[in-house]
Specification:
Layout lengths: L8 E10 L14 E11 L16 E10 L2 E5 L5 E4 L7 E4 L4 E5 L8 H9 L9 E9 L3 E11 L2 E5 L1 E7 L10 E10 L6 E4 L1
Parallel strand pairs: 5-10, 6-12, 7-13
Antiparallel strand pairs: 1-4, 1-9, 2-3, 2-8, 4-5, 7-8, 9-10, 9-12, 11-12
């Protein structure tokens, strides 16, 4: 990062620090996040209604999704430099972030999961007597992330901004990932934390 020129593609790994406007995760209300994602899925059994127009029987269908990302700072492990990562204000971002929390909800378990029922009410979502699954992922302050983007130097401010051209990613046999086109800033959380599966 220290020797990177203006307009150069870089991959930087380091620790996250919040910018001026930190986020809070939707369900678990984790404070001081720079990225949050909350997705609610419904299982469609025989005779139940679909969660969306393309929802087939005996599959999970996306009922609701919200993703938010804001500008943040990254302290580069290699150079020790601190850069502003411009992921907010509608910038294109390709997040590669595992879900931190998975919650399964079955009809009739309202008494044992008041937090989930309350969250549904706050989001104006009905439970429709369906089996549901909530997945929440986030990157919080202090997390280790890798960022791929373009260096931009503006006076004394070192920034990483979205790529103007999509980046082609090939096969990764070790991770079983298919070729893909990555747009904007690629944001990967490097913290290896186990997913909490919580049946409710």
């Amino acid at each position: 990062l220290r020797t990177a020129k203006n307009g150069q593609y870089v991959k930087v790994t380091g620790v996250v620090t919040c910018g001026n406007v930190p986020l809070e995760s939707s369900f678990h209300r984790v404070p001081r996040c720079v990225y949050t994602s909350t997705c609610l899925y419904e299982y469609r059994g025989w005779g139940s209604k679909p969660a969306n127009a393309s929802h087939r029987h005996f599959t999970w269908g996306l009922k609701s999704a919200e993703r938010h990302v804001v500008d943040f700072y990254i302290s580069d492990f290699q150079s020790g430099l601190r850069a502003l990562v411009k992921t907010g204000n509608g910038a294109k971002v390709t997040p590669v972030v595992d879900d931190s929390v998975v919650i399964d909800f079955k009809p009739g378990s309202e008494q044992t999961s008041p937090d989930f029922v309350r969250w549904l009410g706050q989001k104006n979502l009905s439970n429709d007597e369906q089996v549901m699954r909530l997945k929440e992922g986030y990157i919080k302050e202090g997390s280790t992330v890798s960022v791929i983007g373009v260096v931009q130097r503006n006076e004394n401010v070192l920034m990483i901004v979205p790529m103007t051209e999509p980046l082609a990613a090939g096969w990764q046999w070790s991770k079983c990932t298919f070729p893909a086109s990555l747009e904007g800033i690629v944001l990967r959380c490097e913290d290896s934390s186990n997913v909490d599966a919580i049946p409710v």
